[in-house]
Amino acid sequence: MNKDESRLRRARQTRIRIAEALANRLTVIRSNCHISAQVYSPCGTKVLAAASTMEKDLRAAIKNGGSASAAQQIGKLIAERAVKAGVVDVAFDRSGHRYHGRIKALAEAAREAGLKF
Fold it and tell me: What is the average pLDDT across 27-51?
């Protein structure tokens, strides 16, 4: 099993546990150049809020979309949009990535901005 298969296996197990709990899910999608986050409904079929460094207004404000400071801004933005949509409690789905660096920065910024997980 290679590195990517292991990450996907971890992600699948996490998503199964979140689905059993019937919780709103905050998912983080990370690439080398960008980071994005989405809040899904408990059934997993409806996106309630989304934020990404690929959005046109954020691209002008963020110099590098693959940095921890960009992840902090996305964390604040996703929390604001989720609270506006009426979602406060979420389960954090880090897509099998380690809770470190950009993932950690996004999560801490989202907590400070009002999300509970």
Answer: 96
Burial of 90: CB neighbours in 10 Å, binned 0-12, 13-18, 19+: buried
Q: For residue 105, how many other CB atoms are within 10 A of its CB?
A: 20
Look up the pTM and report it: 0.93
Cα distance between the two ends of the chain: 31
Residues with Cβ < 8 Å from 34, sequence gap 6 or more?
A: 52, 53, 54, 65, 66
Backbone angles phi, psi at 90, to 5 degrees: -135, 160
Domains (range + CATH), the chain: 3-112 (3.30.420.100)
**How far apart are the C-alpha atoms of 117 and 68, rounded to whole Å?**
20
